[in-house]
Amino acid sequence: GPKDESCFGESMVKLDVGVHLDGYVADCAITIDLSGHPDLTEASKAALEAALELVAPGVSTAKIGAAIEETIEGYGYKPVSNLTGHGLSRYVAHDDPQIPNRAVEKGVILKEGDVIAIEPFATNGSGRISEAPINEIYGFSAPRPVRQPQARALMKQIQELYKTLPFARRWLVGERVDFALMQLQKCGVVHRYPVLWEVEGALVSQAEHTVVILEDGCEVTTTAARST
Length: 228
Known about the structure:
By secondary structure, this protein is α+β, with helices and mostly antiparallel strands. It folds into two domains: 12-128 and 201-220, Creatinase/methionine aminopeptidase superfamily (Creatine Amidinohydrolase); 133-193, Arc Repressor Mutant, subunit A (Orthogonal Bundle). Helix content is 24%, strand content 34%. It is built from four helices and 13 strands. The strands form four sheets. Strands 5-4-6-12-13 form a five-stranded antiparallel sheet. The chain has a three-stranded antiparallel sheet with strand order 3-7-11.
């Protein structure tokens, strides 16, 4: 936040931003290198560009994944194999189809009108991530009967403000917010998006754009300058 005073040290800092207009979502990300490994950030950016060159109706997501993997390996790194890009739909930030970051046997054929977020991840580690015991981001699953008054009030707040889009714990206001949020998790009203880290503690870079599949290619909605 604007009052943060901590520094990152020799790390890679990922800026992953999502916005929506009436529920229509755009998702993008960049990585800032503070670690002295600029080629790692270049690997994910180059992989994203290689993927965008392929996006069009009739193209398989398997072909996109193979291009991402080949590009990242060309830089001497590994793609994060258990993270994928994803589809986007109204008020849904993570939908089908999945966009693999590696070669796979079968993919999904893209069609005109699809909206997808392509997000290659490159690492100097093992190529896999796991969930950290840290939760900051949540999403609304479904309304359910809730007995505790603060939890009911928080459920209403989340439904009205965020619908099914992700939200941060720090955005919530009210009495006993942490307790109420815990109750909503137990009841299945909300689900968590845990912090992810590379299983060996290695560096990971990411680059991401959102694209709309057009009749003869695609349009990138997360930059004013690029279309194919």
